[in-house]
Amino acid sequence: MRKYLFGTGIISVVTSGLALLRAARDGAPFSWRMALAWLSWAITLALAVGSIVDTRRASQGRLVAPDSPAAGQEQKLLRAQLKKYSAR
Predict the structure, then answer these.
(1) Average pLDDT, the chain
(2) Dihedral in degrees, nearest 10, Cα atoms 64, 69, 74, 78
(3) pLDDT surpasses 90 at 4
(4) From residue 82, how far is each of 45, 59, 72, 78 by CA, in Å?
(5) Of 79, 26, 14, 43, nearest to 35 (Cα)?
(6) Mean pLDDT across the stretch 14-32?
(7) What is the maximal distance between C-alpha atoms in the chain?
(8) In the prediction, which pLDDT does 24 show?
(9) Could you count the other beta carbons within 10 Å of the beta carbon of residue 48?
(10) How distant is the alpha carbon of residue 83 from its chain centre?
(11) How many CB atoms lie within 10 A of CB 22?
(12) pTM over 0.85
């Protein structure tokens, strides 16, 4: 679970979200630029969560979409997962 929570995608989503919240709290008027910033943050969040889901599916040996970062690595991730559980 640590490798998912401390991945670079999630860390960047959290830090950019904090920056957006700080800007909103400081009384900056809500403009189209702020709306685009929040939209960009939501897209980044969706991509980070999608990457986590695909990596987890691949490590369980299930197929993932061909445009996924984990595509083509399903066997390698499954072997690593099995090796981890057999060592316990």
Answers:
(1) 82
(2) -120
(3) no
(4) 29, 9, 17, 6
(5) 43
(6) 88
(7) 56
(8) 86
(9) 19
(10) 25
(11) 10
(12) no
The secondary structure of residue 7, as a DSSP letter, is: S
Take residue 78 and report the two structure tokens written for it. Answer: 């499954």
For the chain, give every domain's residue range: 2-86
Q: Which H or E run includes 53?
A: helix 32-59
Residue with tokens 């057999």: 86
The 10s digit of each residue's pLDDT in 50-62 is 888 887 777 777 7
Over range 14-40, report the average pLDDT. 90
Tokens describing residue 11? 């860390």
Single-letter code of the amino acid located at 52: I
What's the one-letter identity of residue 82? L
Whose structure tokens read 């559980």?
A: 85
Instruction: Give the whole-angstrom CA distance, residue 20 versus residue 4.
Output: 23
